[in-house]
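Ticket #4471: structure output looks truncated?

Reporter: J.K.
Steps to reproduce: submitted the chain below (133 residues) through the standard prediction queue, then opened the result file.
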Amino acid sequence: MNKILTIAACAVALNACATPPEKISSAYVSPLQYKDYDCDQITMETDRVSRRVQSLNASLKKTASDDSAQLAIGMVLFFPALFFLEGSDGADAQEYARLKGESEALQSAAVQKKCTINSVKKPEEPDLKSSGG
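Returned output as attached by the reporter:
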């Protein structure tokens, strides 16, 4: 009986874990909503979407990482801890998928209008070797 409860708890826990952002598919967003945008507007919107995607990416990675750690501890030490996993894909994951779709739609609109977009880049990691003085 304990074995069955443990297996059931593990199954529930695995389904409750948050999906890492790299595994979240983009939602379809029509590029037609940007048909009246000029290149400057597309660039500004791309920057806004990119900043929010980066922010959500960090948040979703942390949630997925925390869930993985809790899952490992729960599996090894104390299986009732599995019931406290924060996980599951909530509003942030849905917004992330939508924003990924918006980013793709903006890229498509930029190509159609022959725009060159220099969007926000990921912040670079500090070079610890050269900053030591």
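Triage note (M.O.): checked the attachment and the full token line is present. DSSP finds three helices and no strands in the chain.
Status: closed, working as intended.
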